[in-house]
Specification:
Elements (H helix, E strand, L loop, with lengths): L2 H11 L2 H13 L4 E2 H8 L3 H13 L3 E6 L2 E6 L1 H12 L7 H12 L4
Antiparallel strand pairs: 1-3, 2-3
Helix pairs in contact: 1-4, 2-4, 3-4, 5-6
Length: about 110
């Protein structure tokens, strides 16, 4: 992940509603949720949620899938892996082999 992509992800997560949405979708896993379900669960107005979902999508932290007239949203685990990898790429004083097990656990590189 490039620095600008990481900055975009951090900016997206720096707002409380967007962070709540992302954490909720991490918990739901492969099931994801429709925008209506997310709005109801978090008690957020639809138009407010729509803008926040758009920011998270642009930051590659969410992905979506159309289901008829609805759109289902999911946490983009690849985007999360990229962000975690970016944070840890220079760890351990220039000896990445020392923290490679942690990086693999966090980024699911063996999953």
């Amino acid at each position: 992940m490039e620095m600008n992509d990481a900055l975009s992800a951090f900016a997206a997560l720096s707002q409380p509603t967007r962070l709540d949405v992302f954490r909720l979708l991490i918990r739901t896993g492969d099931a994801g949720m429709t925008a209506g379900e997310i709005a109801e669960h978090l008690d957020v107005r639809q138009n407010t949620l729509s803008a926040n979902l758009s920011v998270l999508l642009q930051a590659n932290l969410l992905r979506n899938q159309r289901e008829g007239r609805s759109i289902r949203y999911f946490a983009d685990t690849n985007g999360l892996r990229g962000l975690l990898g970016f944070l840890l790429q220079d760890c351990c004083g220039g000896q990445p082999e020392l923290c490679q097990p942690l990086i693999e656990d966090l980024t699911c590189s063996t999953c």
